[in-house]
Protein backbone atom coordinates (compact mmCIF):
# COMPACT_ATOMS: atom_id res chain seq x y z
CA UNK A 1 0.00 0.00 0.00
CA UNK A 2 1.23 3.55 -0.71
CA UNK A 3 0.33 6.32 1.73
CA UNK A 4 1.13 10.03 1.67
CA UNK A 5 1.88 11.40 5.09
CA UNK A 6 2.17 15.12 5.85
CA UNK A 7 4.88 15.57 8.47
CA UNK A 8 4.92 18.54 10.85
CA UNK A 9 8.12 18.48 12.85
CA UNK A 10 7.36 21.80 14.58
CA UNK A 11 9.41 23.36 17.35
CA UNK A 12 11.48 22.37 20.38
CA UNK A 13 11.82 18.59 20.62
CA UNK A 14 9.38 18.18 17.70
CA UNK A 15 12.02 17.49 15.00
CA UNK A 16 13.90 14.96 17.21
CA UNK A 17 10.88 12.85 18.16
CA UNK A 18 9.32 12.94 14.69
CA UNK A 19 12.60 11.72 13.19
CA UNK A 20 12.45 8.56 15.33
CA UNK A 21 8.81 7.93 14.42
CA UNK A 22 9.64 8.21 10.70
CA UNK A 23 12.48 5.70 11.08
CA UNK A 24 10.04 3.30 12.75
CA UNK A 25 7.50 3.83 9.95
CA UNK A 26 10.19 3.15 7.34
CA UNK A 27 11.09 -0.08 9.09
CA UNK A 28 7.42 -1.15 9.07
CA UNK A 29 7.16 -0.22 5.40
CA UNK A 30 10.16 -2.35 4.47
CA UNK A 31 8.98 -5.39 6.46
CA UNK A 32 5.32 -5.27 5.40
CA UNK A 33 5.80 -4.08 1.81
CA UNK A 34 4.31 -0.58 2.02
CA UNK A 35 5.52 2.78 0.73
CA UNK A 36 5.17 5.84 2.95
CA UNK A 37 5.83 9.15 1.16
CA UNK A 38 6.46 12.15 3.40
CA UNK A 39 5.66 15.80 2.69
CA UNK A 40 7.21 18.31 5.09
CA UNK A 41 4.83 20.96 6.42
CA UNK A 42 5.88 24.04 8.40
CA UNK A 43 3.62 24.93 11.30
CA UNK A 44 4.05 26.74 14.61
CA UNK A 45 6.96 28.93 15.63
CA UNK A 46 9.15 27.85 12.71
CA UNK A 47 6.38 28.92 10.29
CA UNK A 48 6.02 32.28 12.08
CA UNK A 49 9.75 32.85 11.62
CA UNK A 50 9.69 31.83 7.96
CA UNK A 51 6.33 33.18 6.73
CA UNK A 52 5.00 35.41 9.51
CA UNK A 53 2.06 33.01 9.91
CA UNK A 54 1.80 29.88 12.13
CA UNK A 55 0.00 27.96 9.39
CA UNK A 56 0.05 29.47 5.89
CA UNK A 57 -2.90 28.34 3.76
CA UNK A 58 -0.57 26.45 1.40
CA UNK A 59 0.68 24.35 4.36
CA UNK A 60 -2.85 23.59 5.51
CA UNK A 61 -3.74 22.43 2.01
CA UNK A 62 -0.79 20.00 2.01
CA UNK A 63 -2.24 18.45 5.17
CA UNK A 64 -5.78 18.29 3.80
CA UNK A 65 -4.47 16.61 0.61
CA UNK A 66 -2.54 13.95 2.54
CA UNK A 67 -3.69 10.52 3.72
CA UNK A 68 -2.88 11.60 7.29
CA UNK A 69 -0.76 14.02 9.29
CA UNK A 70 1.96 13.24 11.83
CA UNK A 71 2.77 16.12 14.18
CA UNK A 72 5.57 16.54 16.75
CA UNK A 73 4.82 19.64 18.81
CA UNK A 74 4.74 23.42 18.38
CA UNK A 75 5.43 26.47 20.50
CA UNK A 76 8.08 27.92 22.73
CA UNK A 77 9.14 30.94 24.75
CA UNK A 78 10.39 32.80 21.68
CA UNK A 79 6.82 33.22 20.38
CA UNK A 80 5.09 33.91 23.72
CA UNK A 81 4.74 37.64 23.08
CA UNK A 82 3.42 37.57 19.52
CA UNK A 83 -0.24 38.73 19.14
CA UNK A 84 -2.89 36.11 20.01
CA UNK A 85 -3.95 35.39 16.42
CA UNK A 86 -0.32 34.72 15.47
CA UNK A 87 0.64 32.33 18.27
CA UNK A 88 1.95 28.86 17.34
CA UNK A 89 -1.11 27.26 19.04
CA UNK A 90 -3.36 29.18 16.61
CA UNK A 91 -1.74 27.17 13.84
CA UNK A 92 -2.81 24.00 15.63
CA UNK A 93 -6.38 25.19 16.13
CA UNK A 94 -6.57 26.19 12.46
CA UNK A 95 -5.13 22.84 11.40
CA UNK A 96 -7.76 20.92 13.41
CA UNK A 97 -10.58 23.10 12.08
CA UNK A 98 -9.22 23.02 8.49
CA UNK A 99 -8.95 19.23 8.54
CA UNK A 100 -12.41 18.98 10.11
CA UNK A 101 -11.12 16.66 12.83
CA UNK A 102 -13.80 17.00 15.47
CA UNK A 103 -12.86 14.06 17.67
CA UNK A 104 -9.70 13.77 19.75
CA UNK A 105 -9.03 10.32 21.15
CA UNK A 106 -6.54 9.86 23.94
CA UNK A 107 -5.84 6.52 25.51
CA UNK A 108 -5.01 6.56 29.23
CA UNK A 109 -3.33 3.23 29.69
CA UNK A 110 -0.75 2.19 32.20
CA UNK A 111 2.20 0.18 30.89
CA UNK A 112 2.81 -2.56 33.48
CA UNK A 113 6.55 -1.87 33.21
CA UNK A 114 5.93 1.74 34.32
CA UNK A 115 3.32 1.13 37.03
CA UNK A 116 5.66 2.54 39.70
CA UNK A 117 5.74 5.89 37.84
CA UNK A 118 2.04 6.53 38.53
CA UNK A 119 1.42 9.05 41.31
CA UNK A 120 -1.58 6.94 42.40
CA UNK A 121 -1.45 4.39 45.21
CA UNK A 122 -0.33 0.93 44.11
CA UNK A 123 -3.68 -0.53 45.26
CA UNK A 124 -5.51 1.72 42.75
CA UNK A 125 -3.03 1.10 39.93
CA UNK A 126 -3.31 -2.66 40.49
CA UNK A 127 -6.98 -2.52 39.50
CA UNK A 128 -5.84 -1.47 36.03
CA UNK A 129 -6.00 1.80 34.08
CA UNK A 130 -7.17 1.41 30.51
CA UNK A 131 -9.64 3.94 29.17
CA UNK A 132 -10.01 6.39 26.29
CA UNK A 133 -11.18 9.97 26.43
CA UNK A 134 -13.07 11.04 23.33
CA UNK A 135 -13.02 14.84 23.33
CA UNK A 136 -15.00 17.16 21.04
CA UNK A 137 -12.31 19.22 19.37
CA UNK A 138 -13.60 22.02 17.17
CA UNK A 139 -16.59 23.44 19.02
CA UNK A 140 -17.57 24.79 22.43
CA UNK A 141 -15.95 27.60 24.34
CA UNK A 142 -12.57 27.50 22.57
CA UNK A 143 -14.28 28.31 19.29
CA UNK A 144 -17.00 30.70 20.55
CA UNK A 145 -16.63 34.49 20.46
CA UNK A 146 -13.96 35.91 22.77
CA UNK A 147 -14.22 39.55 23.80
CA UNK A 148 -12.79 41.92 26.37
CA UNK A 149 -14.58 45.26 26.73
CA UNK A 150 -14.33 48.27 29.01
CA UNK A 151 -17.45 48.52 31.17
CA UNK A 152 -18.51 50.50 34.28
CA UNK A 153 -16.98 47.69 36.36
CA UNK A 154 -13.64 47.84 34.57
CA UNK A 155 -12.59 45.37 31.89
CA UNK A 156 -15.14 42.60 31.29
CA UNK A 157 -14.24 39.44 29.35
CA UNK A 158 -16.72 37.12 27.66
CA UNK A 159 -16.15 33.68 26.11
CA UNK A 160 -19.12 32.01 24.43
CA UNK A 161 -19.88 28.30 24.90
CA UNK A 162 -22.14 27.06 22.12
CA UNK A 163 -23.01 23.57 20.87
CA UNK A 164 -25.68 22.44 18.42
CA UNK A 165 -27.30 19.00 18.20
CA UNK A 166 -25.38 18.11 15.04
CA UNK A 167 -22.00 18.75 16.67
CA UNK A 168 -22.97 16.73 19.75
CA UNK A 169 -24.38 13.87 17.74
CA UNK A 170 -21.30 13.34 15.58
CA UNK A 171 -18.93 13.21 18.58
CA UNK A 172 -21.45 11.07 20.46
CA UNK A 173 -21.37 8.54 17.64
CA UNK A 174 -17.57 8.34 17.86
CA UNK A 175 -17.96 7.69 21.60
CA UNK A 176 -20.48 4.87 21.05
CA UNK A 177 -18.51 3.35 18.17
CA UNK A 178 -15.28 3.43 20.21
CA UNK A 179 -17.03 1.78 23.18
CA UNK A 180 -18.44 -0.85 20.86
CA UNK A 181 -14.90 -1.90 19.91
CA UNK A 182 -13.85 -2.08 23.59
CA UNK A 183 -15.67 -3.05 26.80
CA UNK A 184 -18.95 -1.42 25.69
CA UNK A 185 -19.27 1.11 28.51
CA UNK A 186 -19.62 4.79 27.61
CA UNK A 187 -19.59 7.55 30.23
CA UNK A 188 -20.91 10.90 29.03
CA UNK A 189 -19.40 13.76 31.03
CA UNK A 190 -21.05 17.19 31.31
CA UNK A 191 -22.23 19.85 33.76
CA UNK A 192 -25.97 19.54 33.23
CA UNK A 193 -26.76 20.82 36.72
CA UNK A 194 -25.59 24.28 35.58
CA UNK A 195 -25.14 24.61 31.81
CA UNK A 196 -27.74 24.59 29.05
CA UNK A 197 -25.16 23.29 26.58
CA UNK A 198 -24.64 20.31 28.90
CA UNK A 199 -28.37 19.63 29.19
CA UNK A 200 -28.54 19.48 25.40
CA UNK A 201 -25.43 17.27 25.39
CA UNK A 202 -27.08 14.80 27.78
CA UNK A 203 -30.35 14.74 25.83
CA UNK A 204 -28.56 13.96 22.55
CA UNK A 205 -26.43 11.22 24.15
CA UNK A 206 -29.53 9.48 25.51
CA UNK A 207 -31.29 9.72 22.16
CA UNK A 208 -28.24 8.14 20.47
CA UNK A 209 -28.09 5.38 23.11
CA UNK A 210 -31.26 3.88 21.61
CA UNK A 211 -29.25 3.12 18.46
CA UNK A 212 -26.51 1.38 20.45
CA UNK A 213 -28.33 -1.09 22.72
CA UNK A 214 -25.13 -3.13 23.14
CA UNK A 215 -23.35 -0.15 24.80
CA UNK A 216 -24.13 0.85 28.39
CA UNK A 217 -24.39 4.64 28.71
CA UNK A 218 -23.83 6.41 32.03
CA UNK A 219 -23.77 10.13 32.89
CA UNK A 220 -21.30 11.90 35.15
CA UNK A 221 -20.83 15.53 36.14
CA UNK A 222 -17.41 16.83 35.19
CA UNK A 223 -16.38 17.72 38.75
CA UNK A 224 -17.21 14.20 39.92
CA UNK A 225 -15.37 12.74 36.93
CA UNK A 226 -12.22 14.68 37.87
CA UNK A 227 -12.39 12.98 41.30
CA UNK A 228 -13.26 9.52 39.99
CA UNK A 229 -10.29 9.51 37.59
CA UNK A 230 -7.91 9.55 40.56
CA UNK A 231 -10.11 7.56 42.97
CA UNK A 232 -11.25 4.68 40.80
CA UNK A 233 -9.93 4.91 37.21
CA UNK A 234 -10.63 1.20 36.61
CA UNK A 235 -14.36 1.98 36.32
CA UNK A 236 -13.88 3.77 32.98
CA UNK A 237 -13.83 2.30 29.49
CA UNK A 238 -14.69 5.24 27.21
CA UNK A 239 -15.42 8.82 28.31
CA UNK A 240 -17.03 11.22 25.83
CA UNK A 241 -17.07 14.91 26.61
CA UNK A 242 -17.00 18.46 25.24
CA UNK A 243 -13.91 20.42 24.28
CA UNK A 244 -12.84 22.24 27.45
CA UNK A 245 -13.81 19.46 29.88
CA UNK A 246 -11.95 16.99 27.65
CA UNK A 247 -8.87 19.20 27.55
CA UNK A 248 -8.64 19.23 31.33
CA UNK A 249 -9.67 15.63 32.03
CA UNK A 250 -7.35 14.19 29.42
CA UNK A 251 -4.35 15.95 30.99
CA UNK A 252 -5.39 14.58 34.37
CA UNK A 253 -5.79 11.10 32.88
CA UNK A 254 -2.35 11.24 31.26
CA UNK A 255 -0.79 12.23 34.58
CA UNK A 256 -2.08 9.15 36.40
CA UNK A 257 -0.32 6.91 33.89
CA UNK A 258 2.88 8.59 35.05
CA UNK A 259 4.54 9.51 31.80
CA UNK A 260 3.58 12.41 29.55
CA UNK A 261 6.20 11.39 26.97
CA UNK A 262 4.55 8.00 26.36
CA UNK A 263 1.04 9.00 25.33
CA UNK A 264 -0.18 9.21 21.74
CA UNK A 265 -3.39 10.73 20.40
CA UNK A 266 -5.49 10.72 17.28
CA UNK A 267 -7.88 13.32 15.94
CA UNK A 268 -10.43 12.20 13.39
CA UNK A 269 -13.35 13.62 11.46
CA UNK A 270 -15.64 12.32 8.78
CA UNK A 271 -12.85 11.06 6.50
CA UNK A 272 -10.01 8.63 7.22
CA UNK A 273 -7.44 11.45 7.08
CA UNK A 274 -6.46 11.96 10.71
CA UNK A 275 -4.07 14.05 12.76
CA UNK A 276 -1.72 12.06 14.98
CA UNK A 277 0.42 13.61 17.70
CA UNK A 278 1.85 12.93 21.15
CA UNK A 279 -0.05 14.71 23.91
CA UNK A 280 2.91 16.67 25.24
CA UNK A 281 4.25 20.03 24.09
CA UNK A 282 7.55 21.09 22.58
CA UNK A 283 9.50 20.68 25.86
CA UNK A 284 11.88 23.59 25.22
CA UNK A 285 13.80 22.73 28.41
CA UNK A 286 15.24 19.58 26.81
CA UNK A 287 15.15 20.52 23.11
CA UNK A 288 18.32 19.69 21.17
CA UNK A 289 19.75 17.60 24.03
CA UNK A 290 18.83 14.17 22.65
CA UNK A 291 16.92 13.61 25.92
CA UNK A 292 13.30 13.52 24.71
CA UNK A 293 11.18 10.40 24.88
CA UNK A 294 9.98 9.70 21.31
CA UNK A 295 7.55 6.92 22.31
CA UNK A 296 4.42 9.14 22.37
CA UNK A 297 5.15 10.06 18.74
CA UNK A 298 6.06 6.51 17.75
CA UNK A 299 2.77 5.24 19.26
CA UNK A 300 0.93 8.07 17.46
CA UNK A 301 2.35 6.68 14.21
CA UNK A 302 1.04 3.24 15.27
CA UNK A 303 -2.41 4.77 15.84
CA UNK A 304 -2.23 6.28 12.34
CA UNK A 305 -1.58 2.84 10.85
CA UNK A 306 -4.49 1.32 12.80
CA UNK A 307 -7.18 4.01 12.54
CA UNK A 308 -6.46 5.71 9.20
CA UNK A 309 -4.73 3.01 7.13
CA UNK A 310 -6.38 -0.15 8.51
CA UNK A 311 -2.94 -1.67 9.14
CA UNK A 312 -3.75 -3.53 12.33
CA UNK A 313 -0.85 -5.98 12.40
CA UNK A 314 1.66 -3.26 11.54
CA UNK A 315 0.35 -1.16 14.46
CA UNK A 316 0.54 -4.20 16.74
CA UNK A 317 4.16 -4.74 15.66
CA UNK A 318 5.12 -1.21 16.76
CA UNK A 319 3.31 -1.52 20.10
CA UNK A 320 4.95 -4.90 20.75
CA UNK A 321 8.38 -3.43 19.95
CA UNK A 322 7.79 -0.62 22.47
CA UNK A 323 6.74 -3.15 25.10
CA UNK A 324 9.82 -5.32 24.38
CA UNK A 325 12.04 -2.24 24.66
CA UNK A 326 10.56 -1.44 28.09
CA UNK A 327 10.88 -5.08 29.16
CA UNK A 328 14.58 -4.94 28.26
CA UNK A 329 14.99 -2.15 30.85
CA UNK A 330 15.78 0.83 28.61
CA UNK A 331 14.46 4.23 29.70
CA UNK A 332 14.77 7.84 28.58
CA UNK A 333 15.40 10.31 31.43
CA UNK A 334 11.71 11.21 31.92
CA UNK A 335 10.79 7.65 32.98
CA UNK A 336 14.14 6.56 34.40
CA UNK A 337 13.91 4.11 37.31
CA UNK A 338 16.23 2.07 39.52
CA UNK A 339 18.44 -0.47 37.72
CA UNK A 340 17.35 0.72 34.28
CA UNK A 341 19.61 1.67 31.36
CA UNK A 342 19.47 5.36 30.44
CA UNK A 343 19.17 6.07 26.72
CA UNK A 344 18.75 9.20 24.59
CA UNK A 345 16.07 9.97 22.02
CA UNK A 346 17.95 8.53 19.04
CA UNK A 347 19.08 5.37 20.82
CA UNK A 348 15.50 4.82 21.99
CA UNK A 349 14.47 4.93 18.31
CA UNK A 350 17.27 2.49 17.37
CA UNK A 351 16.28 0.01 20.08
CA UNK A 352 12.59 0.10 19.17
CA UNK A 353 13.08 -0.25 15.44
CA UNK A 354 15.40 -3.24 15.81
CA UNK A 355 12.55 -4.94 17.75
CA UNK A 356 9.99 -4.54 14.95
CA UNK A 357 9.28 -7.85 13.27
P1 LIG B 1 5.49 20.30 27.66
O1 LIG B 1 4.60 19.12 27.47
O2 LIG B 1 6.25 20.75 26.47
O3 LIG B 1 6.55 20.00 28.83
C1 LIG B 1 6.16 19.70 30.17
C2 LIG B 1 7.28 18.92 30.86
O4 LIG B 1 7.30 17.59 30.36
C3 LIG B 1 8.67 19.49 30.60
O5 LIG B 1 9.46 19.33 31.74
C4 LIG B 1 9.23 18.63 29.48
O6 LIG B 1 10.63 18.52 29.47
C5 LIG B 1 8.56 17.28 29.76
N1 LIG B 1 8.31 16.54 28.53
C6 LIG B 1 7.33 16.78 27.61
N2 LIG B 1 7.43 15.93 26.59
C7 LIG B 1 8.48 15.13 26.85
C8 LIG B 1 9.09 14.06 26.15
N3 LIG B 1 8.63 13.61 24.97
N4 LIG B 1 10.16 13.47 26.71
C9 LIG B 1 10.64 13.87 27.89
N5 LIG B 1 10.11 14.88 28.60
C10 LIG B 1 9.04 15.51 28.08
O7 LIG B 1 4.59 21.47 28.24
P2 LIG B 1 4.93 23.02 28.50
O8 LIG B 1 6.31 23.15 29.04
O9 LIG B 1 3.79 23.55 29.25
O10 LIG B 1 4.88 23.69 27.05
C11 LIG B 1 6.03 23.97 26.24
C12 LIG B 1 5.55 24.55 24.93
O11 LIG B 1 4.79 23.56 24.22
C13 LIG B 1 4.64 25.77 25.10
O12 LIG B 1 4.99 26.71 24.11
C14 LIG B 1 3.25 25.21 24.84
O13 LIG B 1 2.38 26.19 24.33
C15 LIG B 1 3.54 24.15 23.81
N6 LIG B 1 2.55 23.06 23.72
C16 LIG B 1 2.33 22.53 22.49
C17 LIG B 1 1.46 21.47 22.35
C18 LIG B 1 1.29 20.88 20.98
O14 LIG B 1 2.07 21.14 20.10
N7 LIG B 1 0.29 20.04 20.78
C19 LIG B 1 0.82 20.93 23.46
C20 LIG B 1 1.09 21.47 24.71
C21 LIG B 1 1.97 22.55 24.84
Task: Explain what this protein looks like in three dimensions.
There is one protein chain. With 357 residues, the protein is an alpha/beta fold. The protein has 2 domains: 1-102 and 260-357, Isopropylmalate Dehydrogenase, CATH 3.40.718.10; 119-256, Isopropylmalate Dehydrogenase (3-Layer(aba) Sandwich). The chain has 12 helices and 14 strands. It has helices at 14-32, 45-51, 57-64, 88-99, 122-125, 165-180, 196-209, 222-231, 243-256, 295-307, 312-327, 345-353; strands at 2-10, 35-40, 68-73, 103-109, 130-136, 146-151, 154-159, 185-190, 216-221, 238-241, 264-268, 275-278, 330-331, 341-342. A 10-stranded mixed beta sheet has the order 2-1-3-12-11-4-5-10-8-9, with helices on both faces. A two-stranded antiparallel ribbon has the order 6-7. It has a two-stranded parallel sheet with strand order 13-14. Strand 1, helix 1 and strand 2 (35-40) form a beta-alpha-beta unit. The radius of gyration is 20 Å and the shape is globular. The protein starts with a strand and ends with a helix. The mean pLDDT is 95. Bound molecules: nicotinamide-adenine-dinucleotide.
Amino acid sequence: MTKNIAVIRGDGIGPEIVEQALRVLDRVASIYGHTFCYTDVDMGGCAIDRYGDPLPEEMLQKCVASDSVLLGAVGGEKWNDVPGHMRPEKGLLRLRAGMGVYSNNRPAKIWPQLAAASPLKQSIVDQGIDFIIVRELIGGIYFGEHQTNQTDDGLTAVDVLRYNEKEIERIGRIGFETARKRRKALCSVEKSNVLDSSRLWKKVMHRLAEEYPDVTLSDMLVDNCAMQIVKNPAQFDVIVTENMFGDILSDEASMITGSIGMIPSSSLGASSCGLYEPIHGSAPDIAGKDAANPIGTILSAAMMLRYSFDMEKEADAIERAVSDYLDAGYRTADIMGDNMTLVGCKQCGDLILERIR
